[in-house]
Design goal:
- The complex is a heterodimer.
- Chain A is mainly alpha-helical.
- The radius of gyration of chain A is 32 Å and the shape is elongated.
- Chain A has two domains: 282 residues, no CATH class; 102 residues, Periplasmic binding protein-like II (D-Maltodextrin-Binding Protein, domain 2, 3-Layer(aba) Sandwich), CATH 3.40.190.10.
- Chain A is built from 17 helices and four strands.
- Chain A is 69% helix and 5% strand.
- Chain B has two domains: 216 residues, Rossmann fold (3-Layer(aba) Sandwich); 62 residues, Alpha-Beta Plaits.
- Chain B has a six-stranded mixed β-sheet.
- In chain B, strand 7, helix 5 and strand 8 form a beta-alpha-beta unit.
- In chain B, helix 2 crosses helix 3.
- The longest helix of chain B has 16 residues.
- Chain B starts with a strand and ends in a 7-residue tail after the last helix.
- Classes of the chains: A mainly alpha, B alpha/beta.
- Chains A and B meet through helix 1, helix 8 and helix 17 of A and strand 4 and helix 2 of B.
């Protein structure tokens, strides 16, 4: 009977969100987006390519640079350099008029003026010209010093080779998928945690809670909602990751040579299991907190204010992990602490598993600590919830809340007349 | 079935909300639980439903400690509450399932109740689209969905038009005829007088008065007589100067005569014997009078 009541609540809460337009539209939209990103380039590659004509760039005082540049294969360069005999003023006019995309005025072996109507962020012409000028200058100097053309070619063509002996993980390979999965963890825990809070507050403000609390056990109400909502989150994650892999596989012939995609979809399978594990654990921990805070709110508007501290705690954890990925490295002292501290460990330990070097016992310890914290927080939060759902008026201050919880505990002990054993 | 609350005490922090509250509800009868705002009615009802325990005292069902799972309770809270954005049948079935019904049973019960409440056809409608009175009827359906043995109605008549109020009255009478326990809480004294044999008036967390309503009324001095006739002026002239008449009170029809003693009733009846009399009746206090008396004079007790 008790189990059935939990199950009814769980089912109701699950359907409540799973059948809502927001959930369906969001999930479908994200799947379509993933499908589009992974499929469209493949479809487009089948169409006849319309190769953009390289734009014309004028060169004054050409010393062979334009020939060197134009020798680069057309698809790898944006311009066609055209030697012209104009004054600099005329050149500037023509560039402004759009006759030439830009102009190069060579002023020495290694110097030139680059005349351009607007400096674009993505323009690499200058960089290409610099390297061409340097290498042709170096070759010219070597030729003057008496080296033969073969010797020069050998020197200029020299490359260094290195063999990486990787004892840990390849962060160049795993940073992308770690980042993507971390974002997914962050969004899912945050979104679904806050959903629990606002849904509890909505039941309270519509006073549906008055009926629920006199009909069902508070523990069932809280767990039913948290697990029902969490299952929606899990389904969404599985849909998104699953559709990513599905559409990658379907378009594999197109993507197989793409290093970026290969590094994302080449992630070890256990990373997906870790994603699910840390989502479930992190979600529970935060959903308890959010559920308790939601129970203290009277209107949906109160929820944001009340849940601010929890949201900040979570955000701080997220940014520590993010900055460690970009900067200090994921095995820094701070990250080590965060990966065992339950409120940050779902993201921090996940990140260290993906990118750092953590022994298995470390992962297990982190999960055990997280589980223990979740049980403690769950007990505390269901006590707050039992109290909060009946409180109307101004949400209590933390001090008042602690006092009320103590009272409630005392009551529970002094209650021999209640054989049903309250939640 | 008899549900009995015995010597309930409850404090929230330093604030004592209930002190020594006792009453009983019996199958087939309605109990009126009355009191001004903040007198402790809702707290008492929540203790009955074991939302939280009493600090002391206990609740028994037929003499045994109450086990909540064994007693089906239908509760209509004063603050009406259901899911405004959910379809009506869906939420009624959900509540029925929470009470332990199977899905099919809950749906059948919901449909039957909607029909009884003249609300057939709204099964797939969202609650918020209904008028206040109709939402109220859905709330009643939610209260009765699991065929409860104890029905607690907190201000059930607010927002209902006379026709719907009549429908609700009929339903409550049916419940009582079927032996259900009904607890009424309302400030509309006329409804309480109509339904409740037993009342319990709370004031400041204590029982100000409780018991059988007729007996309570009888316990008042019966020295006020309502008199009226076709010629009230002549009637008044005839009784005004009698020695045992303490005062004359104006009334809607005729007037009231307050006598020195109850026993003077005989003499008064004799005195008006030759006059044209339509009405000669002992005025009992109305529930309203009793309520006002006990909740204003006795209000100092129990206030923290």
């Amino acid at each position: 009977m008790k189990g059935r009541q939990f199950f009814e609540i769980f089912k109701f809460e699950f359907k409540n969100y799973a059948k809502s337009k927001v959930f369906i539209v969001l999930t479908v939209a994200l799947v379509v987006l993933i499908a589009g990103v992974l499929t469209l380039p493949n479809l487009l590659s089948g169409l006849p390519q319309t190769q953009a004509e390289p734009e014309k760039a004028a060169v004054l005082n050409d010393n062979g640079l334009s020939a060197l540049y134009n020798a680069i294969p057309a698809e790898n360069r944006a311009y066609e350099l055209v030697p012209v005999g104009l004054t600099e003023a005329e050149l500037e006019e023509k560039v402004l008029a759009g006759e030439y995309a830009c102009g190069i005025v060579l002023t020495g072996d290694l110097s030139y003026r680059y005349v351009v109507p607007t400096v674009s962020l993505y323009d690499d012409l200058s960089a290409v010209l610099n390297s061409l000028l340097v290498s042709s200058y170096q070759a010219a100097q070597m030729a003057q010093g008496g080296l033969t053309a073969d010797q020069i070619a050998a020197i200029m063509g020299a490359t260094a080779s290195a063999e990486v002996v990787n004892l840990g993980k390849d962060q160049t390979q795993n940073i992308l998928y770690t980042y993507i999965l971390l974002m997914a963890l962050y969004m899912a825990i945050m979104l679904y945690g806050q959903l629990v809070a606002s849904s509890v507050a909505a039941e309270k403000s519509s006073r549906a809670m008055e009926l629920l609390i006199t009909t069902a056990k508070p523990v069932n109400l809280m767990f039913g909602k948290i697990i029902g909502t969490g299952l929606c989150g899990l389904i969404q994650i599985v849909c998104l990751v699953g559709s990513g892999f599905l559409f990658y596989r379907l378009n594999y012939s197109y993507w197989q040579d793409n290093a970026l995609m290969a590094s994302i979809f080449g992630m070890p399978a256990e990373m997906l299991l870790y994603t699910v594990l840390f989502f479930v654990l992190g979600y529970f921990l935060y959903a308890f907190l959010y559920g308790a805070l939601g129970s203290l709110a009277n209107r949906s508007e109160d929820v944001n204010t009340l849940s601010m501290p929890v949201t900040f705690l979570f955000l701080i954890g997220f940014f520590v992990v993010l900055f460690s990925m970009m900067g200090d490295g994921v095995d820094s002292g701070l990250m080590k602490f965060c990966s065992y501290f339950p409120f940050t460990s779902p993201m921090a330990m996940f990140c260290r598993v993906a990118m750092g070097n953590v022994p298995l016992w470390g992962v297990i310890l982190s999960v055990v600590l997280l589980l223990a914290a979740t049980v403690l927080v769950g007990l505390l939060c269901s006590a707050v919830y039992r109290l909060g759902v009946l409180l109307y008026g101004k949400p209590p201050k933390p001090g008042e809340l602690i006092r009320m919880l103590k009272n409630q505990k005392k009551e529970a002990r002094m209650d021999p007349a209640d054989p049903s054993g309250r939640a | 079935m008899t549900l009995e609350a015995e010597h309930l005490y409850k404090s929230f922090g330093a604030k004592q909300v209930l002190a020594d509250v006792s009453f009983r509800a019996e199958g087939g009868k309605a109990l009126g639980l009355l009191g001004r705002n903040g007198a402790g009615k809702t707290t008492t009802l929540r203790i009955l439903m074991q939302v939280f325990p009493a600090d002391a005292g206990h609740v028994t069902l037929d003499g045994q400690p109450l086990i909540r799972e064994r007693l089906k309770v239908g509760y209509m809270p004063e603050e009406r509450g259901l899911y405004p954005k959910k379809k009506i049948l869906e939420q009624l079935v959900y509540l029925g399932c929470l009470h332990g019904l199977k899905k099919g049973e809950a749906a059948a019960s919901a449909r039957a109740l909607l029909k009884r409440l003249e609300m057939s056809g709204v099964e797939e409608v969202k609650l918020e689209t209904l008028s206040k009175g109709n939402q109220q009827k859905i709330q009643l359906a939610a209260t009765l969905i699991a065929d409860p043995d104890l029905v607690i109605l907190d201000e059930p008549f607010s927002g209902l038009d006379p026709v719907n109020a009549g429908l609700l009255k009929d339903i409550v009478k049916e419940l009582m005829a079927r032996g259900k326990m009904v607890i009424f809480s309302s400030h509309q004294m006329n409804y309480i007088e109509e339904f409740c044999e037993e009342i319990c008036i709370l004031s400041g967390g204590r029982v100000a008065v409780s018991g059988n309503l007729t007996e309570i009324k009888r316990s008042y001095p019966r020295n006020v007589i309502a008199l009226s006739g076709r010629d009230n002026a002549a009637l008044l002239a005839g009784v005004k100067a009698l020695p045992f008449v303490r005062e004359i009170l104006p009334a809607h029809e005729g007037f009231w005569v307050r006598l020195e003693r109850e026993a003077d009733k005989e003499a008064l009846l004799h005195a008006v014997g030759g006059l044209d009399v339509d009405e000669f009746r002992v005025c009992e206090p109305s529930l309203n009078d009793i309520f006002v008396q006990y909740t204003t004079a006795g209000a100092e007790g129990g206030r923290a």
